[in-house]
Amino acid sequence: MTHVRVNGLAKSYRAGDDIVPALIDVDLEVREGEFVSVVGPSGCGKSTLLYILGGFLHTDGGVAEVGGRVITGPGIDRGIVFQEYALFPWLTVVQNICYGLEMTGIREPERSQRAAAFIRMIGLQGFEHRFPRELSGGMKQRVAIARTLAYDPSILLLDEPFGALDSQTRETMQDELLRIWLETRKTVIMITHDVNEAVYLSQRVYVMSRRPGRIVEEFPVALDRSLSREDVMLSSEFNALRNRVWLSVRRQAAPAN
Amino acid sequence: MAITASQPMGLRRWRSSRDAIWQFLPVLLLAALWQAVSMSGLIDPDFLPGLDRILAALWEMARDGELAFNLFVTIYRSFAGLAIGTVLGVLIGLAMATSRAADGFFGPLVATTYSLPKSTLVPLFILWFGVGDITPIVTVVLACLLPVIVGTYHGIKAVPPILIWSAQAMGTPRRLILWRIKLPAALMPILTGIRIALGFSFVLTISSEMIATRVGIGKLIFMDGENGAYAYMFAGLLAVVLIAYLSDRGMVRLMRYLLRWQDSAELTADA
Does the CB of B175 have a partner CB in chain A at under 8 Å? Predict the structure, then answer.
């Protein structure tokens, strides 16, 4: 069943007196429980696409729907995780996780129980009462993911969620995300510029053009999720597909002569 | 997984007592210089009394209750003005940051009154409000308004949109965005504005007390000066400096506590 549908979407920005198109005629469809990535060269408008799905930006044309209803603003059916974490720095880890629970109407004692369960899930026991500034980048992003999962949105919108992390932490976090997705089967739309990450995590990868962005290619991914990271990443299927996606993105990144 | 390397307590205490000595060294040097000039007779000791005479005068004023009463009046006026100015300043700053109409209305007022010395209004306020508590309090309110408005306005304007988006995505209704997100995010510049206002509040209370009241430490300083009782005048000044310094330290402590979540570098730089 289609969960997210985008059709003929257009968005432009005003820069002084000029109007700069960011997205032109974007089409995509994501089924319920599907993990989809959007990759593209930097500045192609892929984050803009995600912010429209989040309801933070309005479209200039076309439609963006969730569950058959046109998006008119932010909603708790769509949880978002930003590259810069966007934790509330004045709240502790547990308060950050409880915030969304409070806003979505989860009462005590269930609120604290759920927060504790998610802190266990991300392995931050003992850090409940730390402020974000006392955490490493990887820990902050784990809190950001946990606070979004905690209030149980049906869609996860991820905006380059691991872009600010070192490569070891990034791999660990990718595996955690994959495990969480396999457990919860939420619909996930992830924006990334990391082709490996997109192919490793997703069931489908969309490639976007240079600005103004539109979808230029779509790659279905059929990898065996029961295999270990090493087995997947060293397999010829993974590498063949990764190369095709990489070439597709590269064609977009290099200006045509 | 190391998070914060906390120093051993002993070392930290040693550091802070060493810092304290450095902090007070200039004050001690100034006191020594004062005493030397007074004793040398370079300036007539009647006009520049030695510290021994100033402290003796302070002790006398403290003993007969004169100091405590006048200080109390002055502190009451300063804090009343500061409190009213802070509340109004935050409200006006918020209005300006969130409404174009309010910005258009208050913006020019703030810009034109910013550099006006508020003490010049005291004679006018005496005509309107007479001699008493109201004139110094109104003067202090006006002086406190501006730094608080400016701090609040810029603080609210600078809240990262991504924090507001996060809050909206988690279902925060519009009316709660201000209280739950914008105000805490802007706390640092707001408190900094209040700290500047705190300094203004003493200055303005004292200077308006000199001409617009019958009691208060400013009046006392003024009268002792007029009567040539310079040791008493300086004793009153010393008491004010001490109170102003202590309340600023108190404010810094409060800020440290309220902003303990903020990157500590920004805080120590400010204090």
Answer: no
